[in-house]
Amino acid sequence: MSFAHPWLLLLAPIPFVLALLWRRQRGSLTVPSLQLWDNTSLGRARYLWVLPTCRVVALTLLIIAMARPQAGSTQSIQVSEGIAIQLLVDVSSSMSMSMQMTDGKNRSRMEVAKVLVEKFIAGDGDELHGREGDLLGLITFARYADTRSPLTFGHDALLELVRDLEIQERPNEDGTGYGDALAVAAARLKQLDDPEIRQMRSLEGEVASRVIILLTDGENNSGQHMPVEAAGLAKEWGCRVYSISLGEHPQEFSGQALESPQLSEAERVLEHICIETGGVFRTAFDYDSLLAVYAEIDQLERSRIATRDFAQIAEWFWLPLASSLLLLFTAFLVEATWLRAVP
Fold it and tell me: Is 110 in the same domain as 40?
């Protein structure tokens, strides 16, 4: 229990002081002797003390009500400003080319990509911290872009989809159409502004950042949208694009994400997309360099968690106020009827 104006409680003794002054100053009649009334009953006069007592208590309660007693509690909640991330993975036939693992063994680019995308989502307990609390979606592309998973908080189901990814082996569907994939991803992120979509995705807070992570090993040669056109849509809709180009030849690597000074024409396009949208372009040639790129992106795009304190306060001034008014009304009523005194 607390008071909004506790200094008013200093006035609490005033009703008692006024009662004492009133008692000393009230009128009296001087008589020579009280023997005539020795055997006379006091009757209702014995209750006359009730009236001043009620007034003192009522005024005291009125002062307490003016001090505004309050009862409440302070609570803290963590509000996460989430990130929506669209993961774009190339599944064209060129992803069957081999990449070197940490142990020196070779595995296909597709297998390495699946391992690292899975670690990016769930975390590896070391360099990658996982994307818990973020909204994630998965789009694969060869000649055509396919939405494998809409934006979701259900990362367990998303991980199963990542593990089941396979290279597109049909010749008529092979190719690299990441321009279409970028356009689809940007449109999916733009839909987060739609109230119906937000309700469907159970979105309560603000989406602090909209990110597209594009992993490819070739140049765009299919689809209806040119990469630069798709980048324009992403920029207009507030999406940052991070592009990762899988190269064939290792270059100097210092343990950090690679920035190659000599880029191919296809890589220049990817770099332009990233610069245009505020993202980052990196190249990778083996497991370790690709891990470094995903670790860099993981650090750049983190959810911001803020703690907000709020207090729930219940006003209780009405209780002493109501009691005070009730006592004053009762005292007035009794004084005018049952304990009415002749001046």
Answer: no
